[in-house]
Write a structure and sequence with these properties.
about 35% strand, about 15% helix, six-stranded antiparallel beta sheet, mainly beta, globular, about 650 residues, eight-stranded mixed beta sheet
């Protein structure tokens, strides 16, 4: 139920933290007058001598063109310049992304739609010179390339004849006529680099989400499930898949969600992250290990006061991992023999590069050299590289861009035995002698986290600061960052403990800062949209609300959404077995309490939080005489893709709050 960017290369990365509603994309700021340029991926070569990245294309005036290009820079010389790697001779002519280094650091695999038919395929290029060679000629959705250890084969995920990009954030295909539940399976696929022969390896009735080559190249660890991909990630299991004959063997059936399968260097063990996760690509939990032949899984981080989000084996006895920790990013190491966890780096900066839709750090083979896309609320994204936590800036493409919003601080407040963390953004040009309105922004998820990096173009609520608001970004129970017990603390309790956590945060701000208690609003997208709808049914404290892609009625929602398997772990049963627990947390149950003017926004083809949920809430408010407005954005899914729609969302949101809070 969260807003999250999706689908990109699967490389040898460690993720960091930005799995909540604040991601790294271009956003308008001061300075040059242009938006910050976006970096989608970074990958350091296995030998640590080069770094490759994907950046958004722009014209001579710096305006984005909608495409993307790949660059490589030598790290051994301070005078080296980035070199474009492409299947195209025109930087504006193609979208090129999804990069993966060969183990010998001489070649890059990447996706390009240079053919002009709207279809991306894989190309291979020697980074020392020469043109790119087309490797595949497939129709459908291709993602997540990974080279075999012997460099003879490229593995990737392939959804043949897919009608749309994979993932529930994308617009759903309109349903008409007889609905036959046609399923497009994402299969693990191999292409021989010498002959170009393509072979779909995994069974046709299995949807593969993530995978990892075994050290000997003879098999894969894979997270997969039967049935439709969007929903069944929540019940996916861990398998091994024979690279020669495609034999699939079950290794572990989890009680909750799992992600990031990784073979140990000796091939004896598979590590993964397991826990309560509300969204594919939003990863957090504990780290587990299981014998590669199957058996009981062992939790190697029990009680950790953080949420590991990615992992990589450093040796057969040590695992490097990234973590959400108290609203910040962290990189740590665990010694499996002693159980000791050592922190390598912690900071409020956000580091990211897309891996399976999750931000990451890219590691070289020595596990020491690394590369990241680093950014913060004060500094737009740039490429950095160097030893872990000691990175040096490589690019300077956004040097002239400055934020138009105010400063940030991390806050903590108690609610019973819970310690809650959040971020507070001050108004731009803040004057402590004035009193200001404030808007609370609830992140998506609920298993997500509000990190404070350079804002994304969609739902950029930093814009409220530029318009004279304090903005509070709370991380209530159910969020990542304080351990699995905290993440699971909202099970069968949506709208109760988590909402009280948010209200206590509002109390803390009002008590200590010049915020006018009579001019407070609330907003959010996805789970944040649900919490906005819930808030106005529980209190009149908020004088205005904007609910983005929210949920009004969990009972009707169960049969409308495209990801229904996320719900039983949170509610303890299906809606057909316990309708009461769903009604207990449904805003529609308490709809007659609403007095707050509420703007409702949603995409026409949203599969995660379908449009009828927003319409049901709007219609109820309209019938009850509450000031409200519903805006349905044509062709959009859960995350909006069209620039004019993204802009319109923030303009409407700001005008709504200006009208009722100023």
């Amino acid at each position: 139920m969260k807003m999250n960017c999706c689908n990109s290369a699967k490389l040898a990365f460690l993720t960091t933290l930005l799995t909540g509603c604040l991601a790294v994309t271009g956003a308008q700021a001061q300075g040059t007058g242009a938006a910050a340029r976006n970096f989608d991926q970074v990958a350091i070569s296995p030998d640590g001598t080069r770094v490759a990245w994907v950046q958004s294309s722009a014209n001579a005036s710096g305006e984005p063109t909608g495409g993307s290009a790949i660059y490589v820079q030598d790290l051994r010389s301070t005078n080296s310049k980035p070199k474009r790697i492409s299947a195209s001779t025109d930087i504006q002519a193609a979208t090129e992304d999804t990069i993966s280094w060969s183990p010998d650091s001489k070649h890059l695999a990447f996706l390009s739609d240079v053919a002009g038919d709207g279809q991306s395929n894989f190309y291979i290029v020697n980074v020392d010179g020469g043109g790119a060679r087309k490797l595949t000629s497939l129709k459908g959705f291709l993602a997540d390339p990974a080279w075999s250890p012997d460099e003879k084969t490229l593995a990737f995920l392939f959804t043949e004849n897919a009608l749309r990009v994979a993932g529930p954030l994308m617009p759903m295909v309109p349903e008409t006529g007889v609905i036959d539940q046609k399923i497009y399976e994402q299969r693990l696929t191999l292409v021989d680099l010498a002959s170009g022969k393509v072979r779909q390896l995994s069974p046709p009735d299995m949807y593969v989400y993530q995978y990892d080559w075994s050290p000997d190249g003879r098999s894969f660890a894979a997270i997969a499930a039967h049935g439709a991909g969007d929903s069944n990630w929540y019940v996916a299991q861990l398998y091994t898949l024979n690279a020669e004959n495609g034999q699939l063997d079950s290794v572990y059936k989890p009680a909750l969600q799992i992600a990031v399968p990784r073979w140990s260097p000796d091939g004896k063990t598979i590590a993964f992250i397991g826990g309560l996760m509300s969204d594919e690509g939003s990863i957090g939990g504990d780290i587990f290990t299981v014998p590669a032949t199957g058996g009981d899984a062992h939790d190697v981080t029990p009680g950790i006061a953080a949420s590991p989000s990615w992992l990589y084996w450093e040796s057969p006895s040590k695992i490097l991992f990234t973590e959400n920790i108290d609203g910040q990013a962290g990189v740590s190491r665990i010694d499996l023999s002693s159980g000791k966890i050592s922190s390598l780096w912690t900071g409020s900066d956000v580091m990211s590069t897309e891996v399976d839709g999750v931000p990451a750090v890219s590691l070289a083979a020595d596990r020491q050299s690394s590369a990241v896309i680093r950014n913060s609320a004060a500094h737009p994204p740039e490429i950095w590289a160097g030893p872990m936590g000691e990175w040096k800036q490589v690019t300077h493409i956004n040097d002239g861009v400055r934020p138009s919003w105010g400063g940030l601080r991390s806050l903590h407040w108690p609610n019973g035995d819970m310690k809650i963390q959040g971020w507070l953004m001050s108004p731009a040009n803040y004057d402590p002698n004035k009193r200001y309105p404030m808007v609370v922004v609830v992140h998506g998820g609920p298993a997500g986290v509000a990190h404070i990096g350079w804002p994304e173009a969609f739902f950029n609520t930093y814009d409220l600061s530029a318009h004279g608001y304090f903005v509070l970004y709370p991380n209530p129970r159910g969020s990542f960052g304080q351990g699995e017990k905290f993440t699971q603390a909202n099970v069968k309790d949506f709208g109760y403990g988590d909402f009280q956590d948010i209200l206590k945060g509002v109390d803390e701000v009002v008590k200590t800062l010049p915020v006018d208690n009579n001019r407070i609003g609330i907003t959010g997208w996805s789970y944040g949209g649900y919490m906005t709808m819930w808030a106005v049914t529980q209190t009149n404290r908020f004088r205005a609300a904007v609910a983005g892609a929210g949920l009004a009625n969990y009972q009707s929602y169960y049969g409308q959404n495209d990801i229904d398997e996320w719900m039983p772990p949170y509610f303890g049963a299906t809606v057909y077995d316990d309708a009461g627990v769903y009604a207990k947390s449904s805003p529609i149950t308490f709809i007659k309490n609403v007095k707050t003017p509420t703007l409702v926004l949603v995409g026409q083809y949203d599969g995660e939080c379908p449009m009828p949920q927003s319409r049901e809430f709007w219609w109820a408010l309209k019938t009850l005489g509450v000031e409200t407005q519903l805006v349905v954005y044509p062709g959009e899914g859960h995350e909006f893709l069209q620039t004019e729609h993204r802009r319109d969302v923030i303009e409407r949101l700001t005008k709504w709050f200006d009208h009722y809070l100023k």
